[in-house]
Amino acid sequence: MLSHVVLADPVALTRALVDIESVSGNEAEITDAVEAALKAAPHLDVTRVGNTLVAATSLGRPQRVVLAGHLDTVPVAGNLPSRTEGNIMHGCGTSDMKSGAALALHLAVHAPAPKYDVTYLFYDCEEVESERNGLRKLAASHPELLAADFALLLEPTYGLVEAGCQGTMRAVVTTRGRRAHSARSWLGENAIHRAGEALARLRRYEARSVEIDGCVYREGLNAVKIGGGVAGNVIPDEAWIEVNFRFAPDRSEEQAHAHVREVFEGFEVAVTDSAPGALPGLTAPPAKEFLAAVGRPPQAKLGWTDVARFATLGIPALNFGPGDPNLAHTREEHVEIDKIEAGAETLRRWLVGGEC
Amino acid sequence: MLSHVVLADPVALTRALVDIESVSGNEAEITDAVEAALKAAPHLDVTRVGNTLVAATSLGRPQRVVLAGHLDTVPVAGNLPSRTEGNIMHGCGTSDMKSGAALALHLAVHAPAPKYDVTYLFYDCEEVESERNGLRKLAASHPELLAADFALLLEPTYGLVEAGCQGTMRAVVTTRGRRAHSARSWLGENAIHRAGEALARLRRYEARSVEIDGCVYREGLNAVKIGGGVAGNVIPDEAWIEVNFRFAPDRSEEQAHAHVREVFEGFEVAVTDSAPGALPGLTAPPAKEFLAAVGRPPQAKLGWTDVARFATLGIPALNFGPGDPNLAHTREEHVEIDKIEAGAETLRRWLVGGEC
C-alpha cells in the first residue's frame, strides 16, 4: 500500500515504487499498488487491462493530455533496495523511470482539477520486445482510452524537453559473385570485394541534419554487421551488410526505405525491421504551455521511444523526466532528488498553475 | 599381393591400387602391397618409415631423380570398387593419384637400369592436414633419403607438365573503431566502414603475372572471409577481413608477407598461414630431358602442391600425371585409360629410352 504521506511526496513516492521490484513480466505487485492509489481518488475513472492502468479525469475541459510512464525495469543488478546519499537516490528504476512514474501518480492523486482533462497511463513490458509492450497492446485493443490532444512521456531526459523521436530501420544489403578456387581467382567474382563498393557508398554518405520546430534531428546510415566467405581457399560468392538508418521524423517509414534502396541502387536490399519516427508536435496548445512551464528550449530526441506510438495515433508527444538517460540500464543507476522536485514543480505549474 | 601380370601393366596396376581402399589414415594395407612388390625387385633398396616407402636404385649414375606419389585418397563417395567403361576407369583415387602412383610402381619394378638413379617415393596422408603428410615427415626425419637433382610428382595434370607452384598465405586484416549507440552514430567510429577502405585497396589491386622459365604465374590477392558487428543498434568497434595471397614463386614467403603488409599499410595485419611457392626448375638436365620426352611446353602450376616441399629441400620439381585435376575429390572421379598408357610411355622414353 502506498500511504497518503508517500503519495503526497514525489521523492518518497519514487523510493516506494523503486522498492517494489518490477522487472519486465513481474509487474503485478506494483500495478496492484498503483491501482489501489488511483482508485482511492474519486475524481479518476480507472481501467485496468492486464498490468496496464488508465486513470482519467472527466472535467469537460476542451483539451485532454496524457501523462504516461512504464512501471517495469530492466533486471536488477545488485542495486535494490534503494538507498539515498545526500541528493542522490540509487537503485534499479530510479532513473528509468520510476521517478517519472512517481510524478504522474502524485499528480493523478493530488490534482483533482487540472487545467486539461488528463489521462494517466501506467504500463508494463516497455523494456522487452515490442510484442509485449503494454502501450502497444493498449493502443491496439483500446485506442479510445488513449484519445488526447497531447502526450507527455516521463522517460528520463534529465529535466529537458526532448521532442519527437527519430525513426529507425534495418536492411540487409547482399552482394553476389561466383565461386572459384582462390589459386585461380580470375575465374571467379569476389562478392566480398563487391561489398566493398556498398561500404564505399556508406563512407561517402552525407547524413542530413533536419530542423523541425526548432529541433535538429541528425540522421545516420551505418553498417552494423557484416559477413561473408566460404573457406580460406575459395573466392566467395556471397556477402552481406546489415545497415541501420536512423531518420528524421520528416520522412515516413516508406520514404526511409526508398531512400536506403536508392543509396544501394544496383544491390539487393531487404528491409528487415522498421519503426517510424515522431514529429516533435510542439504546436499543440498544451505543448506550448508545457514548454512555457519548463522555460527551456526543446531538443530533438535522438533515439527511438514510445512517443512514436502516440505519433502513430496522431497524438503529438514529448519526452520529459527527471532521470539521466545515460544512467538507464546501468548498475550505477540513480536519480538526483532535486531533479524529481523540480520536475514535480514544472508539471504542477503546467497542469494546475502552482501547488497542489 | 600385386601379381607380376598386374605390375607389368600400368592400367591393371592402377585398377588394383584403386581397389585397395586407402583413405588417409588407413594406408597400411596398400603400403604392405607396394612394399612387397618393391622388395621383390633386386635392383632396389627399400626403406619403410611408417606408411611411407622409399625404394632407390644405386647404379652410380651422375644424376638422381625422384618419382613420387601419395597412396592415400579422400573419403570414398560410393565410388568403390572401380569399374571400367570403354576408355574410362571410374573410382575413388583413379585420378588423384593412384594412376600416377601406378606409373611409378610399374617403372620401379620393370626398369632395372634407368638412365638416372631413381628414388621412388610412396607416401601417406597427403589429403589431410600438413602435420600428418608423409612427405613432410620424411623430409624432416630422413632428408638424406630424398637427396636428388630433380623430382617428378605424379599428381594429376592430365598429361601436361605443370611446373613449380604458387605460394599461398593468409592474413587477417583488422580494423578498429569506437562503439556508440547507432542513434548517435557521430559519437562513434565505424570499424566496418573502415574495413571498406581495405576492400577498396583489394578492388584497386593489380595482380602481377610473372613469367619464369617460360611459365606464367598469375598472382591473386583476395578477401575470402569477412566479419564484424556487435548488435543492430551499435556502431561496431571491430571488423576483420581474411585475405588469401597466391604468389608467384619468385617471391619468398617473407617477401610475400611484406607485400601484403604494404598493401594494407595503416591496418593491423596478422599472418595466419603460409606456404612457399616452388620455382619451375626447368633448367636441371633431367628436367630438360623430361620435357623433351613429353614434347609439349610446360605450364605454370596454379595451386599449391607437394612440389614446394622438394623446392624447400633445394630440389627442382614438376607435376606430371595422367589424371584430370578437375575430377580430383569428386564423386565422379575417373581417369582416361589412354592417358595412363601415354604417361607410362613418356616416362619410359625419358628413363630408359623406350620399352621396359
Automatic annotation (TrEMBL), chains A, B:
Cofactor: Co(2+); Zn(2+)
Reactions this protein catalyses: N-succinyl-(2S,6S)-2,6-diaminopimelate + H2O = (2S,6S)-2,6-diaminopimelate + succinate
GO biological process: diaminopimelate biosynthetic process; L-arginine biosynthetic process; lysine biosynthetic process via diaminopimelate
Pathway noted in the entry: Amino-acid biosynthesis; L-lysine biosynthesis via DAP pathway; LL-2,6-diaminopimelate from (S)-tetrahydrodipicolinate (succinylase route): step 3/3
Residue ranges occupied by any Peptidase M20 dimerisation domain in the UniProt entry: 167-265
Family annotation (InterPro entries): Bact_exopeptidase_dim_dom (IPR036264), Peptidase_M20 (IPR002933), Peptidase_M20_dimer (IPR011650), Peptidase_M20A (IPR050072), Succinyl-DAP_deSuclase_DapE (IPR010174)
Any one GO molecular function term: succinyl-diaminopimelate desuccinylase activity
Zinc is among the record's keywords: yes
Enzyme Commission number(s) of this protein: 3.5.1.18
Entry keyword Oxidoreductase: no
Keywords: Amino-acid biosynthesis, Cobalt, Diaminopimelate biosynthesis, Hydrolase, Lysine biosynthesis, Metal-binding, Zinc
Domain of life: Bacteria
Class of this enzyme: hydrolase
Assembly information from the UniProt record: Homodimer.
Record's protein name: Succinyl-diaminopimelate desuccinylase
Protein source organism: Virgisporangium aliadipatigenens
